[in-house]
Structure to design on (557 residues):
């Protein structure tokens, strides 16, 4: 809870632990109810996850990334809300068997919400609450559409468990098995002298391995398949720094929902900043409370008035309101890949990016892998220690003559051939800062900030034409096909949306490899498959002009 924070209390806090909620099949789910210790009826914020309400009293810390319920006491004591925190079936003190986001779990949400509405202390108006898994639950709350649900505020949550979480671009990601083992240990292990907890028997790691393509199993657990069924007002809050887990979900979720909606994307740079932000009372008071007050209390300004989109523009370091997403005023421009050296860094090739296309034939850039100097993933070592760019391909622009804002989704068109029948492409966009001549002569790498990412396994290049847009290719991930031997193919790689002002004198950098590293990608790394041995060729001549296509926002528009 948030005992160390001060605020004006209007109610004392009453806590009811281990409250049983009966489901249709007789299973009883366990809830912890936080409500004002007073007569009256109060709006309900509902948080549902496998993270055990028993642990709510532990302090906020990035060591406990799964503790994602925010300032519950403030909502109750200072704002007059009830908060209900429920363990999904089979976890914590809840009965039944846990089965990751299954239809049973989805149906439970309907029944939990209607249970909340029937309580004597409830005003029969329920709103979704919480981040990450709690956010996944909120998407499904909206999809189930029980009559007492009045709004959802999905903060930091994916919608497509295959593309957003487990198989980026069709490439297996290590995160979800790691996450599930953490949840299992947290549910099972207890301090000495206490009875053992519950073993989650589902082998989620095996299930993920058995479903490497997008099939009916993924469709059942992915909210994006049914987002058009959401009818309640939705406040979707994402973070530019959550590229490998939740960002895509909050943005595409906003795009696909037809109900009243708003989108906010913050400047949180990583999982830790996004986690910290949700704990801050000031943030809730500004961003979430007005939304809940309007739809759950009928108080305050119309939550859907004003601009529907608010974005944090990195580089400019400010929020900006927008009339739509993606931005209609964006002008898509191409940066062409070239063999010409940028002379601004040390990498396998030190290529360049140019606003002008190639004028003659050029030899392709060849990437041999695995690189003999990689130490942890695709990271090598340099004078400064771990070097994320020294042993990958880079293509870097000239120093910018004026500030350049790029806001929106981007795409990399890559002409490629491979010595193998398949290959992986990992893409990063970076804002590269100016460097002194002395540091460059010493072989030091320039300071840079990674802005966005993209991935594609070449065998998964079958596009879903109905769902693809000009600047967001959408892949079926259902019909892997080998690369044709010795032939060049055109790959279109989705670059996750970003908003950044590249300052005058800075450079825009594109990085390409076939893997990543825990040193650079934190929790969201990808296993380097045993069959990735060989070489790829990237073409950038007149007939096969590989290019990065970015949405440029003109200054003052």
């Amino acid at each position: 809870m948030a005992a160390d924070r001060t605020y004006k209390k209007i109610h004392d806090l009453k806590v009811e632990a281990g409250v049983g909620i009966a489901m249709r099949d007789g299973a009883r789910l366990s809830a912890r109810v936080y409500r004002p210790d007073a007569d009256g009826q109060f709006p309900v914020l509902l948080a549902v996850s496998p993270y055990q309400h028993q642990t709510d009293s532990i302090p906020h810390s990035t060591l406990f990334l799964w503790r994602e319920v925010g300032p519950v006491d403030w909502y109750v004591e200072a704002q007059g809300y009830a908060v209900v925190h429920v363990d999904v079936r089979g976890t914590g003190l809840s009965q039944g068997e846990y089965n990751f986001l299954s239809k049973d779990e989805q149906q439970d949400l309907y029944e939990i919400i209607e249970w909340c509405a029937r309580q004597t202390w409830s005003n029969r108006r329920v709103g979704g609450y919480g981040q990450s898994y709690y956010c996944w639950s909120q998407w499904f709350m909206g999809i189930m559409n029980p009559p007492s649900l009045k709004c959802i505020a999905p903060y930091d949550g994916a919608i497509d468990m295959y593309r957003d979480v487990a198989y980026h671009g069709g490439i297996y990601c290590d995160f979800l098995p790691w996450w599930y083992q953490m949840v299992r240990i947290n549910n099972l292990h207890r301090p000495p002298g206490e009875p053992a907890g519950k073993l989650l028997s589902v082998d989620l790691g095996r299930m993920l391995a058995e479903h490497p393509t997008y099939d009916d199993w993924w469709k059942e657990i992915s909210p994006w398949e049914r987002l058009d069924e959401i009818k309640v007002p939705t406040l979707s809050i994402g973070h530019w720094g959550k590229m490998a887990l939740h960002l895509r979900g909050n943005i595409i979720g906003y795009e696909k929902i037809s109900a009243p909606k708003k989108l906010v994307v913050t400047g949180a740079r990583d999982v830790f900043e996004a986690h910290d932000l949700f704990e801050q009372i000031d943030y809730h008071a500004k961003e979430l409370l007005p939304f809940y007050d309007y739809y759950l209390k009928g108080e305050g300004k119309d939550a859907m008035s004003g601009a529907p989109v608010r974005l944090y523009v990195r580089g400019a370091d400010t929020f900006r309101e927008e009339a739509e997403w993606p931005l209609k005023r964006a002008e898509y421009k191409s940066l062409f890949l070239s063999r010409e050296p940028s002379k601004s860094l040390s990498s396998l090739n030190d290529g360049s990016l140019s606003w002008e296309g190639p004028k003659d034939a050029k030899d392709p850039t060849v990437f041999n892998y695995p690189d003999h100097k990689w130490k942890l993933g695709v990271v090598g070592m340099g004078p400064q220690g771990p070097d994320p760019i020294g042993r990958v391909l880079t293509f870097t622009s000239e120093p910018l003559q004026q500030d350049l804002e790029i806001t929106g989704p981007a795409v990399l068109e890559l002409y490629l051939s491979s010595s193998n029948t398949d290959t992986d492409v990992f893409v990063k966009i970076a804002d590269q800062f100016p460097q002194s001549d002395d540091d460059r002569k010493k072989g030091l790498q320039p300071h840079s900030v990674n802005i966005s990412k993209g991935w594609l396994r070449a065998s998964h290049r079958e596009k879903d034409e109905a769902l693809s847009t000009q600047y967001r290719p959408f892949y079926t991930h259902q019909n892997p096909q080998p690369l044709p031997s010795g032939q060049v193919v055109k790959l279109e790689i989705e670059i996750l949306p970003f908003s950044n002002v590249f300052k005058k004198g800075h450079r825009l950098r594109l990085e390409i490899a076939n893997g990543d590293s825990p040193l650079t990608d934190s929790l969201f790394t990808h296993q380097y498959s045993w069959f990735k041995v060989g070489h790829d060729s990237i073409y950038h001549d007149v007939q096969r002009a590989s290019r990065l296509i970015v949405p440029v926002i003109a200054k003052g528009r």
In short: Residues 281-297 form the longest helix (17 residues). The chain has two domains: 13-156+229-306, 331-553. The chain has a mean pLDDT of 96. Residues 331-553 form a domain with the Jelly Rolls fold (CATH 2.60.120.260).
